[in-house]
Amino acid sequence: MTRRGQSGGERDHVAVEEPMEVRVNGASFAVIMRTPGADRDLAAGFLLAEDVIRDADEIGTIEYCQDATDEGRDNTINVTVTGGAVERLTARLTDRRQVTMNSSCGLCGRRTIESLQARVATVGGAWTVPAAVIASLPDRLRASQAAFDATGGIHAAGLFDRTGHLQQSAEDVGRHNAVDKIVGRTLLAGRHPLDESILLVSGRTSFELVQKALLAGVPLIAAVSAPSSLAIDLATEAGITLCGFVRGPRFNIYSHPHRVG
């Protein structure tokens, strides 16, 4: 490792990135580049965002595949789905692109705002939260980021209640994966919709992140960086309050400011 022009033999910690194959009812569905850990949560959250499943009752089991090779055994997971998810799975397998999801890609804008509104029109959450609570969230999330402390190269997402208490957090090389891990964890715990919660992400806010929040029922999203134009459009249409550049006491509100008092 070289630091400030000096070479040395000091070891450096780096974030782990490995592929995880997601199979659904035994059929290969996607390969996600992720940081290992909370893989079951990640798979559940990902399949909710892909509109294969719509609630926890449609999930049978989530298990690592024992028929995978030794190298892939901890990186191959099979989700069994039931009910209406079986028909949706067939449709998704028919029309989806066979791609590897990289850690920065998310859903790559595959869904349109119109198709999302046909699925979930708007979020709930008729409440307000003080601006000071929003401003405090990055520091509260940062205190939980052990992997970032070690590597300096990993994203985080946090789910907070309206008082600013951190309920759930996740870290991953992909910010989309961190959100999926939280969404999947709360889905499997029977907590959806998350209409009393605030979602904070450590990077920018893209269309895909707002989509994931919409499908989970989150009314307010905050981020330490900027949103994209399409993220603002979707948040506006879906009734989501979208805050950006949350760095200290000042931040921007791009949609539905009535929830910030």
Architecture overview:
The chain is of the alpha/beta class and 261 residues long. The protein has eight helices and 13 strands. It folds into two domains: 18-105, Ubiquitin-like (UB roll); 131-259, Cytidine Deaminase, domain 2. Helix content is 31%, strand content 24%. Residues 98-110 have low confidence and may be disordered.
Distance between the termini: 48 Å
Mind telling me the C-alpha Rg?
19 Å
Number of domains as seen in the coordinates? 2
Specify the helix fraction band: 25-40%
- Helix/strand structural class: alpha/beta
Report strand order across the widest sheet: 9-8-10-11-12-13
Summarize the main sheet: 6 strands, mixed
Q: Any idea of the CATH class of the largest domain?
A: Alpha Beta
Beta strand count: 13
**Percent in strands:** 15-25%
- Large-scale geometry: globular
What is the fourth-level CATH superfamily of the largest domain? Answer: Cytidine Deaminase, domain 2
CATH fold type of the largest domain: Cytidine Deaminase, domain 2
Count of discrete alpha- or pi-helical segments spanning 4 or more residues: 8
Arithmetic mean of pLDDT = 86
Order of helices and strands: EEEEHEEHEHHHEEHEHEHEE
